[in-house]
Specification:
Largest sheet: 2 strands, antiparallel
Helix content: over 70%
Shape: globular
Structural class: mainly alpha
Number of strands: 2
Strand content: under 5%
Low-confidence stretches: 18-22, 190-195, 197-202, 261-265, 450-454
Number of domains: 2
Distance between the termini: 22 Å
Number of helices: 26
Order of helices and strands: HHHEHHHHHHHHHHHHHHHHHHHHHHHE
Length: about 525
Amino acid sequence: MTQIRAIVWAQWRTLYHFYPHRGVAWSAVVGLIWYGLWTAAAFAFLRVFSNPNDVPIIRVALPGGLLLMFLYWQVVPLMLVTTGSSLDLRKLRAYPIPDNQLFSIEVLLRVTAGIEMVLLLIGITIGAMLNPALTKWSLLASVVYVAFNLIIAVGLRDMLGRLLARKRIRELVFFFLVLAAALPQLLLARQGMVSPQLRLLMARDAWRGWPWTATANLVTGTRVLSSLAVLSAWTLGALVFSRWQFSRTLAFDADAANARDSKAGRSSWWIEWFYRLPSTVLRDPLGALIEKEFRFLVRSPRFRLVFLMGFTFGLVIWLPMVFVPRGPLGGFFVRNYLTVVCVYSLMLMSEVCFWNAFGFDRSAAQFYFLAPVSFKRVMAGKNLTALFFLLLEIAMVSTVCVLLRMPLDARRFAEAYSVAGVVIIFLFSAGNLLSVRQARGVNPANSFRTGAAGRLQAMLFAIYPVTFAPIMLAYLARYAFGSQTALFVVLGIDAIGGLIVYRVALDSAVRNAERTREAMITALSAGDGPITD
């Protein structure tokens, strides 16, 4: 326990000195709104599970609900490349801390990836305990089910983390995850396959060997002893698996895994040509700045993974809407599928292209203030680099849509690119300001995405509605006038207004950077504590 208290104390001191006077109020506001909504949902579950008249519905829906909780806790964080807080084992190897204690802390930290599910389970458990028609095994069932999710999350995270740390198989692993995510999407979308496929996992008469089915049986008092044995066996198996993966992670050397000989390190001629392209098209120093960004981003595992997510995961997640065209919402996605996926891809890439443009530079950003180049040109170079990759991302999305034979024509292409262009302008305007005022260092070698600061999260609540307001105005104009021309006219006006806003925001960001350069460099240079986000 002494080592655990020391780790927690070191983490607290790190956060206290890193955020001395900012971010606390915004974090509190965001946390209150977000977790307040989940607490309200938990209270709603409490009301349902405490009502004896709802027991038939509970028996039918509880196994599927627990499965969805499992997927939210395990699969969703991995697909979003963010898994909550975890130990930075490289900073703790030098200290005499037993591996079992490190593993215990890692298990507890998995709560940060599923606090919402813990709240829901608390509501379900309290409601079941108050319901005379349900068993008193509910508390034990919920505790063991939470322990199972926490333990298995450690093993999955460690296994995926080691795979994503290897250069040669990182992208292959990611594509496998995307295909795994596409399978249930397609099962949900295709008619005739929903009922028999999902019945094997979610219905009340599903296989009793699933952990969520066993937990539901314990809550409802069905086959108590056998269900308890099944859930305990799953938890024990998860413990063995996760402890094995954690031990392998302790002995894993990411630098050695990525080491390669000099021949393998030589760039191909076409890669070198790609790197040199900005310098041949644009004059220095702008060309040199963009070339530097090209070289760095292409080699960054975090950037490559987010870029791949844009034209793969973005296509997969909205695909069921195309297969289910009934209703006004389904019809909208069929007509505007390319536009929706393009905008969604821009949002996926926002962390690496908009909100924290100097994050990958970290302490090296001080060079921008020492070099005989205006800071405005530096920011323009970063914006042009991001614009190139964003357009390339949209082109990749369009190519995949064409290969999938989506219903596309020249009008839909023009609409998608016009909407994406307006969104990019406004996101650049806000991103330049946030990149200076909310600068923070990001490890480009870490494939998992770190959580944004509380203030930034709160600002995004306001930025995204403002950003998409001009787009909504254009679609309202098309609806009001019944003409596609009205949409393009309003989008053109939006683009002109966006360019004016971009110019003003860029000048403001440059002035702010010159005035607060010391604070900006300090924030970019600051390191994490023993627990990383």
